[in-house]
Amino acid sequence: xxxxxxxxxxxxxxxxxxxxxxxxxxxxxxxxxxxxxxxxxxxxxxxxxxxxxxxxxxxxxxxxxxxxxxxxxxxxxx
Length: 78
Known about the structure:
mainly alpha
């Protein structure tokens, strides 16, 4: 299995695997291999989402800190 470069590539490959496994034409041995690949892809996608979430939290914190420095009360929107 070639590791995906992006979240979107990982999700596309997961969708392909799901379609193959649901087709009913996949042997048990191939299903096990596909399952193992899917498990790695799920971990990759989950990790990628976690990183993105942390980045967004950091951006929110920076914006919140900038708003306080400008004298805006926390939570106010303009």
